[in-house]
Amino acid sequence: MILLSVALTHYVHPYWVFLTLFVGVNLFQSGITNICPLTSVLKKMGVSTEAA
Questions:
Q1: What is the per-residue burial (b if ≥16 Cβ within 10 Å, else e) of 2-18?
Q2: Model's pTM, two decimal places?
Q3: Are 13 and 24 in contact (CB under 8 A)?
Q4: What is the pLDDT along the chain (52 residues), one digit of tens a residue?
Q5: How many whole angstroms separate alpha carbon 18 and alpha carbon 24?
């Protein structure tokens, strides 16, 4: 996701850098707290968290 947002920043528009920052902040927060916001969203959508 970071590589995609960096490419969008370079080729499309400089404001895509905010996506890079958002993903980076989420990775930093997840590394410190061991809580992933995407996991919460996927659980609410009904996606199973266990591997098959």
A1: eeebeebbeeeeeebee
A2: 0.71
A3: no
A4: 999 999 999 999 999 999 999 999 999 999 999 988 888 888 899 988 776 5
A5: 10
